[in-house]
Write a structure and sequence with these properties.
single chain, mainly alpha, globular
């Protein structure tokens, strides 16, 4: 699930703890899982396409594997809000290459999100439905 995570120059991106946070998103320890998400969010990821382009594939992988420990609704909502930020970057020609990559990665994974429409968890269904709607309406 975390293939290649050690090959990314996280130090250069000024987020040396990112691998720990990404892996923490599937931790059995709820407090550590929540803290890991908060750390990712608090890196100004919404304003850092250079960083987000490395995080998004791992989050999609976690969602796709429907990892038992992951907070899938939270991650789906995160992708939705990140997608909105990225569209804003694209419309202003800021970090165009990274932003287009992120949007494409999120949008092209729609089949993964559709699998969550039949989840037993209503929050997961609702978050998946909302993200899918945004993708399909753009």
């Amino acid at each position: 699930m975390f293939d290649g995570i050690d090959k990314i120059d996280w130090q250069k991106l000024r987020v040396p703890d990112a691998p720990k946070w990404i892996q923490g998103l599937v931790s059995e320890n709820t407090a550590f899982r929540d803290e890991s998400f908060d750390e990712i969010r608090d890196t100004y990821i919404y304003e850092r396409p250079d960083f987000a382009k490395y995080i998004v594939p791992y989050i999609i992988e976690i969602i796709g594997q429907n990892h038992a420990n992951a907070d899938i609704p939270l991650l789906l909502e995160f992708l939705k809000s990140l997608r909105v930020s990225i569209i804003r970057f694209i419309s202003t020609d800021v970090a165009m290459v990274e932003s287009q990559f992120i949007k494409s990665k999120i949008d092209s994974s729609i089949e993964i999100y559709k699998k969550h429409l039949s989840s037993n968890n209503s929050e997961t269904r609702d978050a998946a439905k909302s993200l899918i709607k945004d993708i399909e309406n753009s």
